[in-house]
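Sharing a chain and its predicted structure for anyone who wants a worked example. Both blocks are below, sequence first, tokens second.
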Amino acid sequence: MEAIKSQETPAQEKDQKRKKIPAKPSPVTSAAPIPATQYKKINVQWHHRPENQDIFYKQAGPPQTIEVDPSTVYSVQDIITKCVKVFKNNFTAQYFERGEIKLGKKNFEIVENFGTGGFWQYYKVARNLAHRPPPLYLYTYLEKPVNTSSKPSQIISKENCSWQCNDLPNCKSLFKTPLKSIVNIDAPKSGLKKDSSLFKFPSQRKRPLDSEKFTEENQKNMKIDEKIKEFKMEIIVPISQVPIDSLKFTDILLGKGAFGEVKKAFWGMSEVTIKTIDTQQVRPKDIIKELVILRQVVHTNIVNLMGYSTGDYEFHIIMEFIDGYTLRDLIFKSTTKSKFPLNESDKLQLAHQIFLGISFLHEFPNPVIHRDIKPANIMITKNKLVKICDLGVSSIKKMCTQLMTAKGHINCAGTPMYMAPEIYLYHQEATTFSDKWSLGCTIVELFSERHVWHTNNYSTCNLTELLKLKKEPNLSSIPAVLRDNIKSCFSYDRPSDRPTAEQFVRVFRNSNVELQCH
């Protein structure tokens, strides 16, 4: 009977199992960490102005990045703290501990608060204006004087291994690219909160305030600005600044590169080509100085520069619109070749026009260096008229790459396949001689309709080997009248032996080739 009583029914066994299941643990009150994928990354650029100076120095190297949580409400001070954290180390500590720290915009306008919408509404508006994620700008400057008894050249203290703030101009490894701004050094802190009078460019004030202290460097910068103004007034054909509202951009993309896009647009009722450059890495003033010189370059075989326009974080270069094809498409694109075939006579005519345009650039008193001669930068109209384009944009690219590369290393603007060995291998400055090398590469591709260097999938490793071995391209397709001079274009040891474009023009004129007038 006891054995029978100890037996349990299936229902009772199920109840017993349910009783044995442990209770669920109470939920943890602490919040789980936010996944890294939910953070937003924002670039930050740092500019510093030393004591008794009117120049801001941009930190060398690429911008730093801060991580922000979209679900968090940030104040200006919160963002400043995050920005300081990514820049502050043993060498930069005194810049933040002894000076004032402000958050601002690119035009030196100080941001005291983000408004009613907070940081994320402020950033959203800035992004819409710039059409891309805009960076934040951290400004530091000295209000209180520090010990100046030490010599300027003594920049490192062995005790704490920190930089002296007053020695900033001599510290080229940490800062570069000075940004000129006449500054009221004696201005009180309250003046900074009301407006941005503490950060102003020379062009914004005709005369300095009496309370300002000017050094010899300040006076020198003012003289340079005056000379630039006089230089602009002497130019017969000035460059025009076009209001951005006068331009109508289309969706027709003509080209795209690392530094911007090329689109078809309308200026009034006229078709134009607009090259848009990101100004986060190069100042508009530097671009304008380059364009002012290039505005004088007026030639039948060179695309005409018409003007420029500026927007938020963008600079627009306005050029004439060319209705035609690039030489690259005529050489390598089968669909274009079938529509617009070229025989040897046509190629000779095109080569002659290319030589005329490059010769015109190099014959200036201060030769204009193209820096990126290649088939993709040569347009051919339907009447077989050559138009050399991207003139000057390559030099602006050079400014950008110098700002974006690491300390002490200079990256060269241009296309590797068409670069002279002294630039590609040894990072030397571009010259007319390097242009001649690129010109030779272009002419080889024009007549052979093949790439000048045969590499595996355009491998730069193979290109490096070819150039180190001092290889020459195949010149069998080059007409006899040009072959010897084209071969000289690929002189490795003596770049000065490369023939000029003018020499090629003379070869044409002394030959039996019938030249057409355009």
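Comments welcome. The radius of gyration is 31 Å.
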